[in-house]
Write a structure and sequence with these properties.
Helix content is 60%, strand content 11%. The protein is mainly alpha-helical. The protein has a two-stranded antiparallel ribbon. The longest helix has 11 residues. The radius of gyration is 11 Å and the shape is globular.
């Protein structure tokens, strides 16, 4: 199972809140490099990191992620 992020939706949510990648990373408790890679679509978050991001951005999981079965 893979958790795929909707990068355009992430960018939209960050824009609406006026948050930078650094701020989202701090709010979610993840590394800045990890956040940069996720934003660029170079890395898909693990389920625990996905949960941290949805909590930080205050959105439902399905709004920001898609689950792809292997």
């Amino acid at each position: 199972m893979k958790v795929l992020i909707k990068t355009e939706k992430l960018a939209e949510l960050m824009y609406r809140k006026g948050w930078t990648r650094k701020h989202v990373a701090q709010q979610a408790g993840i590394g800045q490099v990890t956040m940069q890679q996720i934003c660029r679509g170079e890395r898909n978050p693990s389920p625990p990191v996905a949960k941290k991001l949805t909590d930080a951005l205050e959105v439902d999981f399905s709004e920001l992620f898609v689950i792809q079965s292997d």
